């Protein structure tokens, strides 16, 4: 059974890191100016999708690009929200979803974590994110 196979953690984490690093880019393409609302339980709430009228093929291409970026952002937000521990979720949000890019050191100092604790939470969160993203699409299994 596939779901009982051993996960190749390094490859899975690499897939998740690549996707999470794209979040800000998707946000810019979708036309979002700010990060999603962060609730007290450290979950993301997406903004409403804007509707566009397409009048030309150029406009249609822009709308398609924006909608695709929005859908990708939404899938990322849903997967982050499925991370069990709200403190682990907060680490992912602070590192990948905030508009302002900050160093890991700035983040873990602000959150009051040691460097090693921060990276343990990040690793755990990235694995859980990969499991939750589009039904496990980012998972890589050992042979």
From TrEMBL:
**Entry-linked InterPro entries:** ArpU-like
Q: What is this protein called?
A: Transcriptional regulator
Q: What is the protein's species of origin? A: Streptococcus vicugnae
